[in-house]
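Weekly structure sync, notes
Attendees: PL (lead), two postdocs, one rotation student
Agenda item 3: pending single-chain targets
PL asked that the sequence for the first pending target be pasted directly into the notes so everyone works from the same version. It is reproduced below exactly as submitted, 239 residues in total.
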Amino acid sequence: MEHREGFHIRFFTKKCYRFCPVVALSLLMAPAIFLGRPAASAEAGNATVSAEAQKFIADFGKRAIDALTDQKISTAVRQKRFAVLLEEGFDVKTIGRFVLGRHWRCLTDARKQKFLALFCRMITVNYAARFKEFEGVVMQVKSVECVVQGGVNVTTVITPPRGGHVVVVWKMFPADPADKAKTFRVVDVTIDNVSMSITQRSEFAHSIQKVGEDMDAFLTDLEKRVQHADQGVSKEAAH
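Predicted structure, written out during the meeting:
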């Protein structure tokens, strides 16, 4: 897999890297905190939740593919659309807390907000543009499973026009009832049995270790990487 020195974070194994424009959406991140056995109680309620979860992922996936694979839009517009979808569909705070592990507790509230902003920007810059290459990708929901702690796993199969497929499991929880604009929030994505959250957690742990577990140094380095990536996007747009 190609490595862009100083910025590229390895979210994918070689096996699923060719699908990264699609799974980038699912990307990235968050805790695999309900990989348990199916919940046994409230079967009627589970059936309702399962139906709602299937609809949420089917609609969300279609909107993402339609919005991000449009060949006519600019990189800036594609990034804005990606950022909106990321905010709508993912529990970024929960994801950010998980990928930093114990280091999250070392941050002040201001540092946490800075990290989450940089994290979102890193994801957007690094992956939004990749969707341009994947016009015609199709996503189908194959199964839905209610699991312990109120979570839902939705298994989908993503198929590109040229053939082949990849199995993607979206792990999510119902959104806070007070947030009437959202029904579910994704907290992890597993691609062919590879958890994106665990992979990202490992990558950040390595980066933090390299700076002697100095979180200010880590945030400064992350900010420089994001700025460098933004400059690269700006130069590409200029041409």
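Discussion points:
- Confidence is low (pLDDT under 50) at residues 1-19, 25-42.
- The chain has one domain: 14-238.
Action: rotation student to compare against the earlier draft before next sync.
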